[in-house]
Amino acid sequence: MKRIGVLSSGGDAPGMNAAIRAVVRKGIYHDLEVWGIKRGYAGLIDGELYRLELRSVADVIQRGGTILHTARSQEFMTNEGRQRALSILKEYGIDGVVVIGGDGSFRGGIELMKLGIKVVGVPGTIDNDLFGTDYTIGFDTAVNTVVDAINKVRDTAVSHERIFVIEVMGRHSGEIALNAGLAGGAESILIPELPYNPSEVCLRLRESYLKGKKHSIIIVAEGVASASQVVEDIRTISGFDTRITVLGHLQRGGTPSAFDRNLASRLSAAAVEALVNGNSGYMVGIQGSQISLVSLEEAVNHKKQINTEFLELAQVLSR
Ligand code: F6P
Question: How confident is the model at residue 318 (pLDDT cuts 50, 70, 90)?
């Protein structure tokens, strides 16, 4: 292996630049040439590649987003698009690629493998919804962004004795909602892994009110229902004065936390190591404190189990 490529794909996440930095510097440490592929698979098909040197990734560890940019590529879903991608990789003499992204990005990596390219995946998505790793890059930063928002919303909820419904990202996962809800002291956390029951939510609000708690924070993951639907349900059922905050893409930006920087550095260095050792078809994950290799097929075909213990604990502690 003398030349590797690196790309970021899917939704961007804080820490992706730390990951790219580690791929470049670990790759050069192993005397590899490292080529950046811009805009994910779309840029690969368009031949948007450029050589990355040690200085190319100077002063990026603290930056959110991805210097390689990202895009979702319909063309790569076609055989013609994949063949074009393969011809570009062959033209540049690239025989191994580090794919930084989520499950959709890894499915693309599996397609590249079918064409004979060695691929190792680095889990980069704020959703933390990938099987085989306790954490994905960007998740810790996104949770801290949400907790900061909860703190700010709580001030005005207390002042006005209001109910606030805060909608968070996660696509189809309640991981952000659960972790930020517990850390933020939310009174209710609604996640797509469990049925949504507005009457139950309002019963808890009523119980809290009768105990003297005149404000509440409800975190709803976007996969459950829209925050506006939850607000309407609460107003209709309980009559409480209720307001809405949708955090949206705020959760995808910002300087990566120390945890995400170190996670990105460790996982990406291990991904280069895997390619150097001739491994392919794996995602590098972290389980406990151990770096592990999980097959890409397993990572994309299994659903990560949610830890509902956080839910029960949040309900007990927020009374
Ligand atoms: O996968 C990360 C994510 O932020 C999801 O949580 C969210 O639903 C989705 O991307 C939004 O996608 P887009 O940025 O294309 O609107």
Answer: confident
